[in-house]
Amino acid sequence: MKPILELRGVSKKFPEFSLDEVSFSLEPGYIMGFIGANGAGKSTTIKLIMNLLHLDGGEIKVFGLDSRQDELEIKQRVGFVYDENHFYEELTIKEMTMVVAPFYKNWDQQCYQSFVHRFELPEKKKIKTFSRGMKMKYSLAVALAHDAELLIMDEPTSGLDPIVRSELLEILSEVIQDERKSVLFSSHITSDLDRIADYITLIHNGQILFSEPKDQLLENYILIKGGHDLLDGRLQPYLVGMRENQFGFEGLVTNKEQVQAVVGGKAILETPTLEDIMLFCTRGKVV
Amino acid sequence: MIYLVLKDLMLQKRMLSMMFLYIVLFSFTFQSIPDGQFIAILVAVSYMFVMMGCAWEDKNNSDVLWNSLPVSRWQIVGSKYLSILAYVAMVVPVYWFVSTAFTLLRIPVSTAPITWWGIGAAMAEVFLISSFYLPVFFALGYTKSRYWNFLLFFGTFSFGSLIPKVLPEPPSWLQNLQNAPMEIFWACFSGVVVLIVAISFFVSLLLYGRREF
User: Fold this and answer.
1) Which of B4, B11, B59 sits opposite A91 (nearest CB)?
2) Is B11 on the interface with A (CB under 8 A)?
3) Residue A276: which domain range?
4) Do A138 and A20 have their domain in common?
5) What does each C-alpha distance from B70 to A110, A155, B49, B56, B67 come to in angstroms?
6) Facing residue for A86 by CB, picked from B4, B64, B72
7) What is the ipTM of this complex?
8) Residue ranges of the domains in chain B?
9) Entry pTM
């Protein structure tokens, strides 16, 4: 199937940071969790996709179209939710929508109204009086009202309470029922992605460490906890990262069967969370 | 693009009371130049609205929004120039209201009458000042461009009247133009203004195209 989003060798240089040959792709009908620590390059990548930054190298295709040459056509079919509000705080959402809606050819006012009603957004109050959650919901209503096929979300859940976060995840699960649609969801709150993501892409220091199906990741990696006596070198080839404390160690390993053979019954082996995988893959060995 | 202008007007409508206040204030300030009072007020207030329009963009970091929507950069740039017309059109009725109120309330402030010539001249002047400001705004954003803005705004009003005294005699072709029939003079003047605005627009577009957000 043709990817809905494809990045090939994307690079961007800043004086103190650079994205280096970033490549990954997302097919229709899936949610991709784009994870990484603060400053890893998630927002820079998203800004490059949205053409808010100029590319230094590489290529970005959205719906098979060139992100630079076919920018306006692509943006007709893309919805976005950013970590900060960029709507005019002095306007009401009714006024804001009056300005934004005419730019979308597929704007569906009925669909928009249904989301405004569902999210209980007051149409006549200024956006500056909205809570962070309400601002995010308004962005989402705008993104969904023009039948966006690709939703790009940059840290949409940061600073939101668990109830609003849960609501958002429910809506995304509904959106993805339409198999034409995909979501790129950047976050460092990996518990959200544990629930809804189909693919996980991890970025660290401007480089992609992996981009794989979530289930495959959770099968490939094992969380191991044991005593210091197990650190005799035999685990070394399988260790992705670990940390030691006075009681023993905790680490992330690959090759479950071989690790089991090495440690026997002396260690606890558990399925890791995405947070464990992100932590150990990016930190390596911490003593 | 018309919706971007509409957005500017919706943001500015909250400043309508300020517009009244400025017009009252400038009516006193510019009493000493009865011939140019109407034009000076129209220029000063309209240009202040151009500045405020730019400040709103900066305050809301709205470049990220517009550049994420299916809106081209030429539309974003063009709307700021088009908004100038809308601002002047907003100021004229408010000026009429204030000057009428002065007369009815017998407030001892003389106000110049509204004339088409005055509206045209003021519009040309606001376009001219904005043409020197907007490329800097589109290149650097409002915060970094405000010193240039300050210089332009106060320079126009403080030193504008000194220019004829400082400059040498105008060249003969310019003197001929001054003596030409009004239609020819205005056609030439309008042509020069349109040319400057067009150059300014393309420079703004070029600089804004290079911006990153």
Assistant:
1) B11
2) yes
3) 218-286
4) yes
5) 21, 22, 26, 21, 7
6) B64
7) 0.86
8) 2-210
9) 0.85
